[in-house]
Amino acid sequence: MSDHSQNSLPHNPYGHFTPEHREFVITRPDTPAPWVNYLWNERYQALISHVGGGFSFVQDPRDNRILRFRYNSLPWDQPGRYLYLHDGHEYWSLSWVPTQMLVYDHYEARHGLGYTTIATARRDLWSEVTYFVPREQALECWLVKLENRGREYKRVDLFAYAELCLGNALNDLINQPNDKHFSQVRFRRDWRALAATRNYWKNTRGVSVEQPNQDWPFLVYFATTLPQEPDGFDGGKDHFIGRWRSEANPAAVQRRRCFDSEITHGDPCVALQHGLELAPGAALTFAVLLGVADKTAADEQVPPLLQRYRQGGAVAAALAQVKAHWHKHLSVLQVETPDAAFNALINVWTRYQTAVTFDMARNAGYYHGGLLFGTGIRDQCQDLWGPLLAEPAAVRARLIEVASYQFADGSTLHNYFRLARTGERTGHSDTPLWLPFALMNYLKETGDFALLEESVPFYDHGEAVLRRHLTLALDYVISQLTARHLPRFGPGDWNDTLDYVGRGGAGETIWGAAFLCYLLREAGVLFDHLGDRETARHYRAVYEQVKASINELAWDGRWYVRGFKDNGEAFGSHRDREGQIFIEPQSWAVLSGVATGARAQQTLRSVREKLMTPFGPQIVSPAYRTVDPAIGLATRCVPGKKENGAVFNHAAAWYVCAELLHGETELGWQTYRDMMPINSSSRAGQDRYKTEPYVFAEYLTSPEHPTAGEASHSWLTGSAVWMLRIGTDVILGLQPTYQGLKLDPHLPAAWRRVRVRREFRGTIYEIEIEQGAKFEAPRRLLVNGEVCDDDVLPQRPGAVLHVHLQRRVAA
Predict the structure, then answer these.
(1) Do the beta carbons of residue 707 and residue 684 sit within 8 Å?
(2) Is residue 452 scored above 60 in pLDDT?
(3) Mean pLDDT in residue range 572-589
């Protein structure tokens, strides 16, 4: 168990949550890694760290990057969105970085939902900068508040600065000396703004001497809402920064005068200078605007937008809309339990994280650069499960998008790029199955069965209704089964690093077989509900066939093997010196019903005995220390990290789910609680843990490595959505079904009272769950004071139903 009371949050030396958990307040800027937030709408997306770092893009982080970012920069996390003040004596940045050697009288960074506020104070000048992206426009706002808290009159120069990328970020990274010949930045006096663009755009992945010969269709503008024209500007980074300098000591800031540079080639930037006067006690509020417009329509689009935001109160109103959006998003589900960390994550941060992963996939972060892989089908189909609670219309549209990358034979692209409509058909064995998984989850939540009759084109030719897309995906995987009725491994399954197990076409995946069984069983339930008994019977028959093969061929005595190599040899077996047991097939054998009774108990016991660490279960143990080319990349990873023996939270969440559903509530809850980042960062020590304590990381290093407890790859991980839905659907027991919302909690015995507000298909449920030894009946369910004998709650759209569940548990 974690080392703190359940009803309080552990101490963190770098910051804390606000009382309602809606903000994480960072009080020391020298965090052990950059701690990040996301700001975005449907068109414009941005990342920002607690010291102003990060980047932005329009729709695609590879093809339409706006701000440049250096992934291995020293100092860390640069460049960024910088505001400098020069008061005539010295200069400093309003975000600690980049002039970080200065000591502030006050520093605080607040990561909120859709915004980040950085507040600093030096030499009697207090500043507060709130960064956010409005709900509708393709721009970001830096809302600045300056206050003179001294007794002397202040005349300061403010410099707003950002370094531009403009277009294809991968090309900018690997071909920058040539790519910079196409950049243009000039000052538009009629806009009181800088305008930047380029006249060449590469948005294809391939490398060739043949050029696309196409224009970049966007123009970037940079302006302030101050009423006066800027006192200076720069469009060339070399001018603003100067020779042999950096963002920490730009020449323009040091001399208190921009160079008024415009460029037609070179490294582009945007910098604006304003002289400001502040009497003692006076305050000034204004905004910096960085936006994107269609190049051919910029003269019609930009001036009215600037005029709108330059009106008093317009920027503050846009920020209020962002906050209102997230308030509404979160309001559909709110919980009150005895565990403060659980409340903080379920009510706010894991919900917010799943909204980020839904829109960013694994495609734009501090660990995923958005340069290579695009949007993954597998990732999207899991990530949408979180925002489904609050934004079913957006999820519906995304399902249609994902289905459009399916081929007419039921296979699918593995990943895709939205703007280019391109992707890779890799042959991963599991990828086709995630569309049925996502569709069934959507239908259970919404009851929107009309979606199944929506016609969606295939990626290659023809079109079909989504019901057909669903069955084609299942039928395609069934058609690829081996003669032993097991799925072929191909170049990988969910575990991408087992990438050479089945490249010869004969390897078999046992995790994939169990996952297929889970979906076949779920398909039987769906088609029964639709009245299609024949299809339901067909999928149940295949389920029994595959289930029998798994139990006959893959049971290793105490657990299931991970799979079979192309040569027929099993791996993940007690016979192996390294890589004896993998977690994935054990969890899914239970979740799918392949393992029942004593066998299910034994396989879960093996996970506890062989894989458990203080931070959750490892993905495999012992870690590989000898490279096995017949298995692949997993054996080449550092032992104890990534897929080679780390606590891989995504897979660990599946184990938690299996324990809970198998009836091991206390064991499942203990592991869930230890995996929550608020707790795991405290147990490891934040300086060892490193990443943000408010969002899940992809993995933690296991004790098989000297850095045990170190987290990495935060934010963009499927761990978040699984931990969210396990928390809501299994622990709290709010389980969507085709018939309605089923209440079947798996609460730890110490929780005597839980309250939940849940919106579901138009009905608002105010739920109270009480449990203890005092109740006479094992279970008593009341709805609006009347006894309800059904686990599925009644639906009354537009009404509020008061639900009271009493459960008898041991004291």
Answers:
(1) no
(2) yes
(3) 98
**Long-range own/partner contacts, residues 94-99 (CB < 8 A, 24 or more apart):** 94/52, 94/118, 94/120, 94/127, 94/129, 94/144, 95/51, 95/52, 95/120, 95/129, 96/29, 96/51, 96/52, 96/120, 97/29, 97/51, 97/52, 97/53, 98/246, 98/247, 98/248, 99/248, 99/249
**pLDDT score of 3 more than 60:** no
Q: Tokens 């490294």 identify what position?
A: 267
Q: Are 681 and 702 in contact (CB under 8 A)?
A: no
Identity at 510, one-letter amino acid code: I
What's the chain's Rg over C-alpha atoms?
28
Three-state secondary-structure class, residue 225: coil
Q: How many whole angstroms separate alpha carbon 481 and alpha carbon 771?
A: 47
Q: Return d(Cα 750, Cα 778) in angstroms, integer.
A: 17
- Give the C-alpha distances (Å, rounded to integers) separating 742 from 123, 523, 793: 60, 19, 6
Cβ 806 vs Cβ 770: under 8 Å: yes
b vs e for 265-299, b when ≥16 Cβ sit within 10 Å of the residue's Cβ?
A: ebbbbbbbbbebebeeeeeeebbbbbbbbebeebe
Q: 555 forms bridges with which residues in the sheet? A: 560
CB 371 within 8 A of CB 170: yes
- What span, in angstroms and rounded, lies between the C-alpha atoms of 322 and 318? 7
Give 378-434 pLDDT, tens digit per residue: 999 999 999 999 999 999 999 999 999 999 999 999 999 887 888 899 999 999 999
Q: Do 525 and 444 form a contact (C-beta atoms < 8 A)?
A: no
Give residue 4's pLDDT band: very low, low, confident or very high (50, 70, 90). very low
Dist CA 250 CA 162 (whole Å): 12
pTM of the model as a whole: 0.97
138 vs 130: CA distance, rounded Å: 17
DSSP character at residue 536: H
Per the rule left: phi > 0, alpha: psi between -120 and 50, beta: everything else, 59 is: left
Q: Are strands 268-278 and 616-617 parallel, antiparallel or unpaired?
A: unpaired
What pLDDT digit, counting tens, does each position of 685-732 carry? Answer: 999 999 999 999 999 999 999 999 999 999 999 999 999 999 999 999
Q: Nearest to residue 66, comparing CAs of 123, 4, 138?
A: 138
Q: At what angle do helices 583-591 and 597-610 cross, to 10 degrees?
A: 150
Q: Name residues whose C-beta falls within 8 Å of residue 769's C-beta, 6 or more positions apart in sequence.
A: 732, 733, 745, 747, 753, 754, 755, 756, 805, 807
What CA–CA distance (Å, rounded) separates 232 from 192? Answer: 11
Q: Are strands 763-772 and 800-808 parallel, antiparallel or unpaired?
A: parallel
**Which DSSP string corresponds to 623-680?**
PP-S--TTT-GGGGSPTTBTTBTSEEHHHHHHHHHHHHHTT-HHHHHHHHHHHSHHHH
Spatial distance between the Cα atoms of 807 and 771, rounded to a whole number of angstroms: 5
Q: What pLDDT does 614 receive?
A: 95
**For position 407, what pLDDT does the model report?**
98
Is 167 in contact with 419 (CB distance < 8 Å)? no
Q: Which of 592, 493, 606 is nearest to 548 (CA)?
A: 592
Could you please report the per-residue DSSP string of 345-386?
IIIIIHHHHHHHHHHHTTSSSSS--SSS--EEHHHHHHHTTT
Position 209 scores a pLDDT of 65
Query: How far is 241 from 248, CA to CA, in rounded Å?
Result: 9
CA 300 to chain CA mean position, Å? 35
Q: Is 503:566 a contact under the CB 8 Å cutoff?
A: yes
